[in-house]
Write a structure and sequence with these properties.
Layout: H1 3-24, H2 26-37, H3 41-69, H4 75-91, H5 97-109, H6 114-146, H7 151-177, H8 190-200, H9 204-207, H10 210-237, H11 244-260, H12 269-280, H13 285-301, H14 304-319
Helix pairs in contact: 1-4, 1-14, 2-13, 3-4, 3-6, 3-10, 4-5, 4-14, 5-6, 6-7, 6-10, 6-11, 7-11, 10-11, 10-13, 11-12, 12-13
């Protein structure tokens, strides 16, 4: 089966996943639209702008690595891939893996060497975990100074730190081993063999570039801060008066709990935790829930339609001849 056909099937499954997601959580969408009708439009626009900046920051992470490798792709094209990555992660929750694979395939279809695309994937993953660790630690420190941490929160913080460090270590180990730990029995399967071939040619000169790692971590950190800023704008839109540090803590606690939760995308766990933290730190229950619903609407539903549209574009691109290189 040709690579383009396989990609077409993958994108088809993404479309199906997006449809299932919408049907299963239509009640959440309806609550989001109802909340929007009563919110301040000026602050809603500010929240939307914060989300647009997260897409730009995500695209800039990939652009930074590609520029270092001499493979320059226009920002509009990378923005499409960033939106598609977010849509893929929502439609088929796999801890971010499905979206990253779609971006790698998209880069290869645009003429980027597969080794460079995979290197960009690993740099993006490592910088994401490093940024997550930094902002997570900051949130726990702020919360520690504002209130006594319960045993439950202390346990969550310890588990979170362990999981993030483990994942970051796995990325580094994968890069250093170049996929050699994969069993020989699995190498008989062509997709696995192709993946090992790409890992064998990872650009370590790019991956271990200190300046690049610093810049990509800064960009990933900006994404977390912009998401927290979106929640703050949502709070202002529903007349919830709460200080930015408390909003940041609430957002991060919701993110941490949803990350550790077995529920895909943290649906329900994020909302419950974020709402509870906003209320615990001074907000009313109703306004805290409304602000959380607006945030989830922007992060979950805002990318859906453009994601579907760009997925059609990628399907067409996948069917066209392209040059795929290793190295």
């Amino acid at each position: 089966m040709k690579f383009g056909v396989l990609t077409g099937w993958a994108l088809g499954f993404l479309a199906l996943g997006g449809l299932i997601l919408f049907v299963l959580h239509f009640s959440d969408f309806r609550a989001f639209t109802t909340t929007l009708m009563a919110a301040d439009p000026i602050w809603l626009v500010a929240a939307a702008l914060c989300q647009v900046l997260t897409y730009i920051s995500a695209a800039a992470v990939w652009a930074r690595v590609l520029k270092r490798a001499g493979s320059v792709i226009g920002m509009p094209s990378l923005l499409r891939l960033a939106l598609l990555e977010l849509f893929a992660n929502q439609a088929i929750p796999t801890g971010g893996l499905s979206g990253s694979i779609i971006v790698v395939r998209g880069l290869v279809h645009r003429g980027v060497a597969s080794s460079v695309a995979v290197t960009a994937l690993l740099v993006a993953a490592l910088s994401y975990y490093a940024a997550y660790l930094l902002v997570g630690l900051l949130a726990f420190v702020l919360l520690w100074n504002m209130a006594d941490l319960s045993r439950a929160l202390m346990s969550i913080s310890a588990i979170f730190l362990g999981v993030i460090i483990l994942l970051a270590g796995a990325v580094i180990a994968l890069t250093r081993s170049r996929g050699r730990f994969i069993p020989n029995a699995a190498l008989g399967w062509k997709p696995v063999a192709r993946m090992v071939a790409m890992f064998a040619n990872i650009r370590t000169d790019i991956f271990y570039d200190g300046r690049q790692i610093f810049e990509t971590i800064a960009l990933q950190t900006a994404i977390f801060l912009l998401d927290a800023a979106t929640l703050w704008c949502a709070a202002k839109a529903v007349s919830l008066s709460i200080e930015p540090p408390k909003v940041f803590i609430s957002f991060m606690m919701g993110s941490v709990v949803s990350t550790l939760s077995p529920v895909p995308m943290g649906l329900g766990t994020f909302e419950a935790t974020c709402t509870a933290m906003l209320h615990f730190l001074g907000g009313t229950v109703e306004a805290s829930l409304a602000a959380t619903l607006v945030l989830r609407g922007f992060t979950l539903w805002l990318p859906m339609l453009p994601g579907l549209w760009f997925m059609r574009h990628e399907a067409k691109l996948a069917s066209e001849p392209h040059v795929q290189t290793i190295g």
